[in-house]
Amino acid sequence: MRIIAITNQKGGVAKTTTAVNLGACIAKLRRKVLLVDLDPQGNLSSWLGIRINELEKSMTNVFNNDVPLKDIISETCVKQLWVAPSNVTLASVERTIINREDKDTILKDRLELIANCYDYVLFDCPPSLGLLTVNALTAAREVVIPLETKVMALNGLVTLINTVNLVKETLNPALEVTGIIACMFDMRTNLSNEVVGMIKEKFSDKLFKSLIRESTKLAECPISGQPITLYAPESRGTKDYMELAKEILALEKREGWWMSRWMRG
Ligand SMILES: Nc1ncnc2c1ncn2[C@@H]1O[C@H](COP(=O)(O)OP(=O)(O)OP(=O)(O)O)[C@@H](O)[C@H]1O
Ligand SMILES: [Mg+2]
What we know:
Blueprint: E1 2-6, H1 15-28, E2 33-37, H2 43-47, H3 59-64, E3 74-75, E4 81-84, H4 93-96, H5 106-112, E5 120-124, H6 131-139, E6 142-148, H7 154-170, E7 176-183, H8 190-203, H9 216-224, H10 228-231, H11 236-249, H12 252-255, H13 257-264
Parallel strand pairs: 1-5, 1-6, 2-4, 2-5, 6-7
Antiparallel strand pairs: 3-4
Helix pairs in contact: 1-11, 5-6
């Protein structure tokens, strides 16, 4: 099971867009994917048609009340894609768990019970480096960082990589940054090209080859209640996220992932 935190403390950089659409593309490539919504905004859950204000159980209960993760997981409109939803009540969790000894490892502990039920677990992180993100970084093996290439995005990236390294040193030695995704890429502007050039210069081996271009269909997609693969299967959004999914799947051998899948049978 590959566990990937999709994270960036900056708001609006396409974390949720990446979680939903990358998840759907990986599912299309015949992997079982669980999306975990770790953002109190609940955008990922709403996108997948969950009425977040009517949820009886959500990630809040998983953090606060020992509810097993498997009890809150729902199916989605996509075969092989499941979601563990959240809503605004998750915002209180950072306060309620702060004094617990296991405050950094709750998510990791909860995930252990579903180990190897899925091929991929993707965390959609909130736009902060608070306890929810620290829980994601402690439970994950890999970090994937979406960057908005329409703005100068590199300052925040250094802070984020420092946080990843801190978690790696203290809580999760296995954690690695798998890659940085250049999102909302607009090839007509110099700025997008410049930002991509700077990421390559500083983090050359980490930038995914697949770029996610700016696309109206991707922006419209959340209100359709479907990922881009269903909403606009022929669009550049589907093409770009599918390329990215293939690039990520190509790393399975490196992860020794196929071995655990084979052992699961
Ligand atoms: N490739 C793209 N082309 C056009 N619009 C995009 C693209 N990717 C994301 N967007 C739009 O950018 C906005 C921010 O995206 P998204 O909600 O995925 O970011 P986020 O990082 O999850 O935000 P938050 O930090 O609030 O959780 C949304 O309106 C989304 O539709
Ligand atoms: Mg989001």
